[in-house]
From TrEMBL:
Family as reported in the entry's similarity comment: Belongs to the diaminopimelate epimerase family.
Annotated organism of origin: Streptomyces armeniacus
Lineage of the organism: Bacteria, Bacillati, Actinomycetota, Actinomycetes, Kitasatosporales
Functional summary from the UniProt entry: Catalyzes the stereoinversion of LL-2,6-diaminopimelate (L,L-DAP) to meso-diaminopimelate (meso-DAP), a precursor of L-lysine and an essential component of the bacterial peptidoglycan.
A GO-annotated cellular component: cytosol
Entry binding sites for substrate: N17, N78, G88, N89, N161, N194, E212, R213, G222, T223
Main location: cytoplasm
The protein's name in its UniProt record: Diaminopimelate epimerase
Site annotation Could be important to modulate the pK values of the two catalytic cysteine residues: residues: H163, E212
GO terms, molecular function: diaminopimelate epimerase activity
Broad enzyme group: isomerase
Location in or out of the cell: Cytoplasm
EC id: 5.1.1.7
Domain of life where this protein originates: Bacteria
Length: 289
């Protein structure tokens, strides 16, 4: 242990997509890729699908321009230490942490992310958390997802981060997902991609498995669930901005359930749980890797 002070951390999850949270209001910590991977390691660290660093927007170069609207910046990292634009489950957990720690009032709060500002609604005493996830973009062009000798057509959906959504007959058909599925054409996703496999469960009710860029298969992905909702709505002929009616889908993930709506302005809202399960102190050497 070095002479540096221990560093506070928390652990939380949203539909079992789990995160290490590092409060860093003044942006003091240089978190290397290696340090994040170590913290997210389930044996050598705390363990998590990703890491959320809570920095005041005014103290982070990527968020300074949003500081007037959003006091806090969610610096999100995948478990391999790579940076991502946005995390839908993470932003709910992030908001839960801020309110629980008295750093933001319950009600509506704006969070700065690399994909822009996200507005989150939550009560002080727990319950579901609702996030305005912005609009989805659906770039044209055919995309295909391959696992072993199976290939499925997929829909390219961007909800701040990139997704390939494949409708399948059976979630087990994707196999154990120990490796990233193949996605073609690679040029469609120059920064890599998150892949969702989806089955129908009933009218406007789907279930998914996800292989996340930078984290592998996880128990849930909030942005992935939003991408799936939009892909399912378009497949089902529902386009709220063209039809004038909002559309709501229930999206089951291995770790729980998310409810997702697309409004007539194209804005997506996601509601789901956000739980803090532990807090403690880290050996500062872990951050210095
Ligand atoms: N689990 C997240 C998504 C995290 C980022 C993703 N792996 C990426 O690299 O884009 C979610 O809940 O949205």
């Amino acid at each position: 242990m070095s002479s540096a002070r221990p560093v506070p951390f928390l652990k939380g999850h949203g539909t079992e997509n789990d995160f290490v949270i590092i409060p860093d209001p003044d942006g003091e910590f240089e978190l290397s890729k290696e340090a994040v991977a170590r913290l997210c390691d389930r044996r050598a660290g705390i363990g998590g699908d990703g890491l959320l660093r809570a920095v005041r927007s005014a103290r982070h170069p990527e968020a300074r321009g949003m500081a007037g609207e959003a006091e806090w910046f969610m610096d999100y990292r995948n478990s391999d230490g790579s940076i991502a634009e946005m995390c839908g489950n993470g932003v709910r957990v992030f908001a839960r942490h801020l309110v629980r720690a008295g750093l933001a009032p319950a009600g509506e709060l704006a969070v700065a992310t690399r994909a822009g500002i996200r507005r989150v609604r939550l009560a002080a005493d727990g319950g579901g958390v609702t996030v305005g996830m912005g609009r989805a973009a659906l770039p044209a062009g055919d995309v295909r997802v391959t696992v072993g000798d199976r290939t499925w057509p997929a829909r390219h959906v961007n909800v701040g981060n990139p997704h390939a959504v494949a409708f399948v007959d059976d979630l087990a058909a994707a196999g154990p997902l120990r490796e990233a599925p193949g996605v073609a054409p690679a040029a469609a996703y120059p920064q890599g991609v998150n892949v969702e496999f989806v089955v129908d469960r009933g009218p406007r009710h789907v279930a998914l498995r996800v292989y996340e860029r930078g984290s592998g298969e996880t128990r849930s992905c909030g942005t992935g669930a939003c991408a799936v909702m939009v892909a399912a709505a378009r497949r089902d002929g529902a386009d709220p901005s063209a039809d004038g009616n909002p559309v709501t889908y229930t999206v089951d993930v291995p770790g729980g359930r998310l409810v997702i709506s697309e409004g007539t302005d194209g804005g997506i809202e996601m509601t789901g749980p956000a739980v803090i399960v532990a807090e403690g102190m880290l050996d500062p050497d872990l951050l210095a890797v």
